[in-house]
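Everyone, study these two lines:
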Amino acid sequence: MAQPIPPEYDDHRDAHWRREATRQVESVFEAERFIEQVGFAACLTDSRRPGPSLYVAVCGRRDAVMPRNVQKDPEASLTWTLKDEIMGRGKVYYAKLARGKSMFLAPRMVPHFNAIWGVRKADEARRLSRPARAVLKVLRGEWEMATADLRGESGVKDRTTFTRAMDELQAAMIVIPEAAYYLPKFTYIWTLGISRFPDELRRRVSRDVALREIARCFLAGAGLTVPGELARVTGLSRPDAGLGNRALVKEGFASSPSRGTYHLAGGHSATEDFRHGATESTQG
């Protein structure tokens, strides 16, 4: 059973993760601002999964649960539409990352995620499967391609094998979906991540710094993190999540009252001040 979150930290999360009816995300501009504020967010997870979520922010409530019939649910539909708009605008990094988690990254967090999960070109032959390398070779020549064309040109024609290859390339932070089209039939347009985020993906940071900054990003929005939570949200291993959190304690950003539990130093932050500042930013 998940460890319960104290009420004062749930209030902190409501403010930072927009789990409030007065601060619902309703447009692509608000969605991009939300992702920039939280640093990274899931797309369609609900209250049963920890961490910031675009779907929960669209719902504007902490108890949001994805219905079985998502096609007829207006909040799920809006989230899906916003996802496509965000992807098309290219201001936020979106892909299926570690452990198959579809996530949005603010540009400032891309170097840190890339330091942990990215695969350098020199390591591709060793770390990528043969189908993934075949797809990547074609995409590097064409720069962008629709799913069916990419399958045909790469020779990876088995649907399951191709899907695994694309998941692998996304998790390695090499390939991203650039756009989604629904007519005459649904397809993604794929491109290289470096085409949209060249500076962020070329910037080198150490693994230790990356773990610390990913932990900082989550704790700033969560206020408190319980054992296993950071790992579950980001896809980090629990030892790596612990390294990141302990680095925050060492610099005085966080305190650890018990093993595996960390909170912002000095208790939770001024939630009302954050709400006020975020509202001014939205209106400005």
About this structure: Strands lie at 40-42, 93-96, 102-105, 144-146, 175-181, 187-192, 224-225, 254-258, 261-264. Residues 74-89 form the longest helix (16 residues). The first strand starts at residue 40 and ends at 42. The two ends are 42 Å apart (CA to CA).
